[in-house]
Amino acid sequence: MSKWKPVRKAVFPVAGLGTRFLPATKVMPKEMLPLVDRPLIQHAFEEAREAGIEEFIFVTGRHKNMLEEHFDFQPELEDTLKSRGKFDMLEAIKSSEISENQLFLTRQTRPLGLGHAIWCAHKLVGDEPFAILLPDDVVLADTPCLKQMVDSYNETGGNLVSVMDVPREQTASYGILDTGKENGNLIEVKGLVEKPKPEDAPSTLSVIGRYILQPEVFTHLSKFETGAGGEIQLTDAMAKLIGSQPFHGYRYEGQRYDCGSRLGFIEANIAYSLKDKEIGDDVRQILQKYGSSQS
Ligand code: UTP
Fold this sequence. Notes:
32% of the residues lie in helices and 24% in strands. By secondary structure, it is of the alpha/beta class. The chain has 2 domains: 9-159 and 204-246, Spore Coat Polysaccharide Biosynthesis Protein SpsA, Chain A, CATH 3.90.550; 261-295, no CATH class. A 9-stranded mixed β-sheet has the order 5-4-1-6-11-8-12-10-9. The longest helix has 13 residues, at 262-274. It is globular. It binds uridine 5'-triphosphate.
């Protein structure tokens, strides 16, 4: 039997300020912005559920109550939909419910950085491996990105971060890998640097918002050391695990969209709506209309 425990829990850090979407995010959390027909947080939740996750841990903050309410049971709405015979909508509502023994909430009172947000979940995670999904990173894939990672983790154990290649001029926006040997989709991680300048970046392989980590990362996070941008960085704590535990980058199959930026969010809406059975063809026609116009 493997010495690595299975991944049963996922942490969703949703306490950020979402300043790039102001004023839309003045009151409404960024994670509630809809990607076609469901909020970003629901896309992330469904991906985790499809990967076999059993416990969903939200790290929330001020003005974020809407996120937990979204996953609540809505009896009046369900009764109304039933009485009107809207069973497809009823199905859609049901798929956004998380039962009380599966949803756990904790708060990050000040947005001190992603590493700090993850640390806030340490009691709820306990002494077992866990996944992290950043809801503003979405991955359109035949097999959901986290499911690909869990399948790989079940073979290799240790720590896994999903990675993609970025243009060298963009390394200062990402956590970047110092890479070792490659074996299929797996790349040995020799080091991790948060937001290096292009000339200092050890590679152009960057970490995107899907992780599987061992609980030892909390030992490093609990030192509250600040890094790039004066924030408590998850990358710095992860880097300290290298050498004591296996650590791999995982080249996922699929297309990632950065829904934390306006352009990435718009592109994601186009890509996801083109895949939509009901509206995909119409969206294609609309795009052709704009593609051929000069203004
Ligand atoms: P971002 O780096 O996108 O930050 O966080 P942000 O505050 O949400 O957005 P901008 O840059 O101001 O527009 C990535 C993820 O980490 C969470 C965010 O909610 C998002 O899901 N996060 C970030 C926290 O939970 N707490 C933090 O202190 C920082």
